[in-house]
Amino acid sequence: MPILDSTLDTRDPAFAQNREDMLGLIEVMDGLLAEAARGGGEAAHARLAKQGKMPLRERIAHVLDRDTPFLEISALAGWRSPYPVGSGFVVGIGIIEGVECVILGHDPSVRAGAFNNFNHKKLMRGLELARINRLPYVQFVESAGADLTGGANEDPEAAIQRELGHFAESGRLFYEISELSKLRIPTISVVFGSATAGGAYQPGMSDYNILIRNQSQVFLGGPPLVKMATGEDADVESLGGADMHASISGLGDYLARDEMDGIAKCREVVRHLNWKKLGPEPEATFAEPLFDAEDLLGMVSKDLRQPFDIREVVARLVDGSYFEEFKAVYGPTLVCGWASLHGYKIGIIGNNGALFSESAEKAAQFIQLCNQIDTPILFLHNITGYIVGTEFEQGGITKNGSKMINAVSNSTVPHISVILGASYGAGNYGMSGRAFGTRFTFIWPTAKIAVMGPKQMAGVMSIVGKASAARKGEPFDEEADAKRAAFVEHWAEERSKGLYATSRISDDGMIDPRDTRTCIAMALSACCNADVKGTKEFGTWRM
Q: How far apart are CA 530 and CA 131, in angstroms?
């Protein structure tokens, strides 16, 4: 393969400004990650310690193989919401006894591990990652059930109504756990505290259950509910204690002395699974990129209208900076080609401008070729969308853009997306956005995701308003329109920012650009637990 060259001038003042801006965004991100890691804070952790309990992240650290990484998913969920950053859950992919597993845990230091809208969505994403990537599923259960109090500033009655409003959908959690078992993907529960009502079905639906003596409690109805429903004065241990479930009900498969013993038993269960990855193994040896990952800090301007060559990013991600470009001079606003990353063979599709008919057709062909040779695809987003205008519509941009989206939708090889800058409108779809079955989606701090740019959105609304007034024969209030446009642009800007998107669990996490190669490698490794096989079947192509 040819080696990519680099013309990046790291002494350019624009590069220095981009780097400074990126480091500022990373500082904000790191501060929020530290906030999420603190969970409920020192006082809450002190209360757990008095009960002989470890913080959630310490439990996860002990279950992982020594000196192995943990790829946390949606770490910033709940930012700018009534709930703490992180939403009281930790979800991620880690290695236990040499086996990559999805690991999920309720954080008992945050509202006693209660469910809320954010961590429920995060939990469901963890289950989805286990299913689509064929990863054993390990859950550390300790939850007070649904958080009926809502956030700190939310009216309790309104919170209760909100929770009741989505109750009919809440059982999907248990369906997904059962589905994993049907697919022969192991499910393991370690119950560290109370698992009440619906939470009791988390271990109830699992293949393996580990309970901790004098600590685990599992029951459909706790003593207060039993008293109200039947009049019985139930003892907690007799009703749902670990000893009872291990010796009488049979719900518990392993009875642990304490938390560390429970974690050790979890590792023993994973050890006996005889787990084998079905996908391709990476090359045993590979070369590091020729160019410094530090350079990625200065690539993207805060003003996303400023272009950069996506090949410069590729050169700092792939093994040896080797890249075999496909149709290099056709449809040049899209870069396609083959490379390897940490020894894994991949196809790469990256943006160098708006998507034209030629670039869309090139992408559709390239996706087909990757499916023919069972090769995962990495999508690098910096896209304002498909080109618009009379000339381009007459040239078939809707038709040809649809071919690209058809290819993305029907492709069965793993897709991994990294959103570096803009990811607007249908461009997000064509580049395998989150809605398209993408295995993993990561974003840089500079990312923006929206139906269109904020200025364009405000402008479109003004044009529509003027046209509406003209049709009705009414005067158009220019001053009111200017205020409305400023309001729309401000909130469109705020809600398009990557930090807002990642807090709403619209991706799998915001990452430091310098960690991009590592995160992609971990994602590829996780994908290869399942068979990596392309399709020959695509929807109807509109010719």
A: 9
Nearest-angstrom CA–CA distance, 323 and 3: 6
Q: How many C-beta atoms surround the C-beta of residue 153 within 10 A?
A: 6
Give which of 373, 323, 320 is closest to 349, Cα–Cα.
Answer: 323
Q: What is the pLDDT along the chain (543 residues), one digit of tens a residue?
A: 699 999 999 999 999 999 999 999 999 999 999 999 999 999 999 999 999 899 999 999 999 999 999 999 999 999 999 899 999 999 999 999 999 999 999 999 998 788 888 898 999 999 999 999 999 999 999 987 666 665 545 544 444 444 445 556 667 889 999 999 999 999 999 999 998 877 888 999 999 999 999 999 999 888 888 888 888 888 889 999 999 999 999 999 999 999 999 999 999 999 999 999 999 999 999 999 999 999 999 999 999 999 999 999 999 999 999 999 999 999 999 999 999 999 999 999 999 999 999 999 999 999 999 999 999 999 999 999 999 899 999 999 999 999 999 999 999 999 999 999 999 989 999 999 999 999 999 999 999 998 766 677 667 778 887 788 788 888 877 778 777 777 766 666 777 899 999 999 999 999 999 999 999 999 999 999 999 999 999 988 888
CA dihedral 179, 183, 186, 189 (to 10 degrees): 0
Q: What residues have CB less than 8 Å from 496, skipping those under 6 apart?
A: 448, 449, 450, 453, 454
Q: Measure the CA–CA gap between 255 and 457, rounded to whole angstroms.
A: 59
- Listed in sequence order, the residues at least 6 apart from 100 whose beta carbon sits closer than 8 Å to its beta carbon are 93, 94, 135, 136, 525, 526, 529
Closest residue by Cα to residue 86 from 122, 53, 47: 122
CA–CA separation, 154 vs 174, rounded Å?
Answer: 28
Spell out a b/e string for 434-460, using b for 16 or more CB atoms within 10 Å of the CB, else e. Answer: bebebbbbbbbbbbbbbebbbebbbee
Q: What is the pTM of this model?
A: 0.92
How crowded is residue 27: how many other Cβ atoms within 10 Å of its Cβ? 11
Q: In the structure encoding, which two tokens stand for residue 173, read together?
A: 């959690």
**Residues, the chain, total?**
543
Q: Which residues of 257-293 are buried (b: 16+ CB within 10 A; e: fewer)?
A: eebeebbbbbbebbeebebebebbebeeeeeebbbeb
State which H helix or E strand residue 68 sits in.
none
Angle at which helix 117-133 crosses helix 516-527, to 10 degrees, equals 60
